[in-house]
Amino acid sequence: MTSTNAVHVLGIGGSLRAGSQSERALRIALDGAAGAGVTTELIAGPELVLPFYDTSLEERHERAVRLVEAIRRADGIIVVSPGYHGALSGLVKNALDYVEDLRDDARPYLDGRAVGLAAVAFGWQAAVTTLEQLRTITHALRGWATPLGGSINTAETKFDEAGGASDEKSVRTLRLMGTQVAEFALSRAGH
């Protein structure tokens, strides 16, 4: 857990486009976590533009250092990726590859942390397969994928700037997923 009593949830995702549909979905999920009584942090879009992950390099770009330190501090994580051609975005995948830098930590990788996952794509096939890939990656990184994940089809659901969406069910799903991450982290911290 974090060095203070505050339980902290990190959100990672979005796309290079500021205010993208996937970033808006991530913000809704983080609001759900915050509503459960945890602090939250967002690393999205341009902040995820990192050099390709390379295990042979010891020096890291300042944005990569910030990402790794934020993951290290996090008691729970929420990842939302756009679905591109049936898969998660290279931007999000590369960010998740940097979790390898935590391999020698007392809490290696995502060990002991709940990870909420959602995929946002124009069509059900890409949304569902992207969510499945995010779950596989989370398990490989020793994270606990929340029971509820989100597959959001933007052909049917549009997110707005006010923190809502045209489909209330999608909003409820994302908020509940964020709440599950927070509740798991709070229970692990003994709150």
UniProtKB/TrEMBL annotation:
Concerning InterPro entries, the annotation shows:
Flavoprotein-like_sf (IPR029039), FMN_Rdtase-like_dom (IPR005025), NAD(P)H-dep_reductase (IPR050712)
The GO molecular function terms of this record are: FMN binding; oxidoreductase activity
Q: Which residues form the NADPH-dependent FMN reductase-like domain?
A: 8-147
Q: TM segments?
A: none
What GO cellular component entries does it have? cytosol
**Gene3D superfamilies documented for this protein:** 3.40.50.360
Q: What SUPFAM superfamilies does this protein map onto? A: Flavoproteins (SSF52218)
Task: State the protein's name.
Answer: FMN reductase
| Organism lineage string | Bacteria, Bacillati, Actinomycetota, Actinomycetes, Pseudonocardiales
